Amino acid sequence: MACSALRWHHELVFRSVKCWVHPDYGSCRLEMINKTHIDCDVVAASMVYDPYMDLVIAQVDASRRSRTVILSRKFDLCDKNTYGKTDYASLYVVSIINSFLNGTKFECPLSPRKFAIRSFTLTSKFVPWQLFYRRNSYLIVNGSFFEVKQNSKKKVGSYLLNTTIEKTPA
Fold first, then answer.
1. pLDDT tens per residue, range 116-149
2. Cis ω before 109 (30° cut-off from 0)
3. Distance CA 79, CA 84 (A)
4. Structural domains present in the chain
5. Is residue 75 within 8 Å of 53, Cβ to Cβ?
6. Torsion angle (degrees, nearest 10) of CA 124, 82, 60, 125
7. What is the pTM of this model?
8. What is the DSSP string of 4-40?
9. Higher confidence at residue 1 or residue 109?
10. In the structure, how many helices (H) and strands (E) does the chain have?
């Protein structure tokens, strides 16, 4: 007896992308190439001494108007003990950050320079998107970068990715 089960392919697609950098710190550009790939350019115009990133990934159910937080985590980019935590989500985020460095080492303080990545995608065999697939829902990926100076923090920049998971026959 043959199995007639249909296999599905799940991929993350971009609906919209935005970035913002405080003018004292530089500039950024995010551009969608197609529904699964983006180009990103970031110019760091000044030194950033103690940066960290707050990352929130939330799933929004459009039909019920509800929101579920999938991941909410602070990445202290200069603390070697916590930056590369070994949980799967952290390792994936660190690999994305490293891809922006184009083979150079991330060092603190972050010196002025340009970062660029071409044809970047979040679709990966290593992320089981089928576990997060929900009809009539979308994912919001919101990252905010801060610098800590003399016990106060200043927002340096942020990005917002509005995405959805598409399910197609494999």
1. 889 998 887 778 888 889 999 999 999 999 999 8
2. yes
3. 9
4. 8-169 (2.60.40)
5. yes
6. 10
7. 0.87
8. -PPPEEEEEEEEEEEEEE-TTTEEEEEEESSSS-EEE
9. 109
10. 2, 8
